[in-house]
Specification:
This protein has 2 domains: 1-57 and 125-181, no CATH class; 62-124, no CATH class. It is built from 9 helices and 3 strands. The protein has helices at residues 7-28, 31-48, 56-60, 67-77, 81-88, 120-124, 137-144, 148-160, 165-184; strands at 64-65, 89-92, 95-98. Strand 2 and strand 3 form a beta hairpin. The relative contact order is 0.18.
């Protein structure tokens, strides 16, 4: 597993390969089979990894807070919903987001002070246990730049699919040869 502090560097090394892998999956993967692999890897890796030891998502992303989250968190903090909104949230196109980055509820040790009642986007992140990952690979790959778990899932998927980055180039050359053969009648 990549150290959270070194994730950007590790991602840069495979960014081009990841984009080729995304295209490879788009052309070769069966959506429900890919979802099953994602779910299995998600469960396996999260069983061994303490997500709270990283906190990159809490430091880097806008945290969307929905109405249910506002109700639950404000009650936990002993605030009215309006007081909670005024103190911690800012309006956005999608509703409300936490005012500050890193999140105000992230303590010095990287632990979430409201972990048990955290916003739903926090509970669901990095979405690798959700269906239709094939159709959301851009998002998944963008998360791999910040999240060691997503990075690891992508690397293990490459092994499962026996992917090698030069496979895309070989396939492209083969398709070009076929096209030239058809166009020229060779």
């Amino acid at each position: 597993m990549v150290n959270p502090s070194k994730i950007k560097e590790a991602y840069r090394k495979v960014a081009d390969q990841n984009e080729k892998f995304r295209r490879f999956l788009k052309n070769n993967a069966v959506d429900y089979e890919l979802d099953a692999h994602f779910l299995k890897l998600h469960n396996m890796i999260f069983a061994e990894y303490d997500c709270c030891a990283c906190g990159n998502c809490c430091k880097l992303y806008d945290i969307l807070v929905n109405k249910d989250d506002i109700e639950r968190i404000s009650q936990y903090l002993g605030l009215t919903e309006n007081d909670f909104i005024e103190k911690y949230l800012a309006a956005s196109d999608e509703g409300y987001i936490m005012k500050e980055k890193p999140c105000r509820f992230l303590d010095e040790d990287g632990k979430c002070k409201i972990y048990e009642i955290r916003p739903s986007v926090c509970r669901d992140f990095p979405y690798t246990d959700k269906p239709y990952r094939l159709y959301h690979m851009y998002g998944v790959l963008s998360f791999a730049e910040e999240c060691p778990v997503v990075f690891e899932i992508i690397e293990r998927l490459k092994k499962i699919y026996k992917y090698r980055s030069n496979d895309c180039q070989k396939e492209k050359r083969k398709n070009n040869r076929r096209r030239n053969t058809n166009e020229h009648g060779w």
